[in-house]
Write a structure and sequence with these properties.
By secondary structure, this protein is mainly alpha-helical. Helices cover 67% and strands 7% of the residues. The protein has a three-stranded antiparallel beta sheet with strand order 1-3-2. It binds a DNA duplex (9 and 8 nucleotides) through helix 2.
Length: 139
DNA sequence: GTTCTTACA
DNA sequence: TGTAAGTA
């Protein structure tokens, strides 16, 4: 078994997760990460790496960085895992509610578009019929 | 060469 | 988030 690295540089993590160092610094700025410092340079631990992984997963699920920061904030608040899972569950539930609402809005819009589409078609047919009957020919 | 901060797009 | 500038 080869020893797994204990710490990582910002570029190590950037490579591993296919993101840029800029993104990692930005996440730190947003409170998602809090790496140690050796002078000015950032030293990332396994815990930081895990948090980054969770942050990226949260992003994929559509959570805002603020929400991710909150959920991850308690990740190492040393509270019982039960509380943490309950929080994540609550967050996921809210996400689902938001997504379902969006779907309803989209469906409503699609119906409106379809209705308007139909009106246009009818108008087109009506005008074609009128022209055939010689109506509306003013000039 | 790598990382950092700051500032602007 | 990308990029540029000027450092350590």
């Amino acid at each position: 078994m080869v020893d797994q690295p204990t710490t990582f540089s910002i570029s190590d993590l950037a490579r591993e997760f296919n993101i840029t160092p800029r993104t990692i610094r930005f996440y730190e700025d947003q409170g998602l990460l809090a790496p140690q410092r050796e002078g000015r340079t950032r030293i990332f631990t396994r815990r930081d790496r895990t948090r980054l992984k969770l942050a990226l997963r949260g992003k994929r699920l559509g959570f805002s960085l603020a929400e991710i920061a909150y959920l991850i904030g308690m990740y190492d608040t040393a509270r019982d895992q039960n509380t943490q899972l309950t929080e994540f569950l609550a967050g996921l539930t809210q996400r689902k509610v938001a997504l379902q609402q969006q779907r309803e809005d989209i469906e409503a819009l699609l119906q409106e578009v379809s209705a308007f589409e139909e009106q246009c078609r009818e108008l087109l047919l009506t005008r074609a019929a009128d022209e055939a009957a010689g109506v509306g020919r003013t000039a």
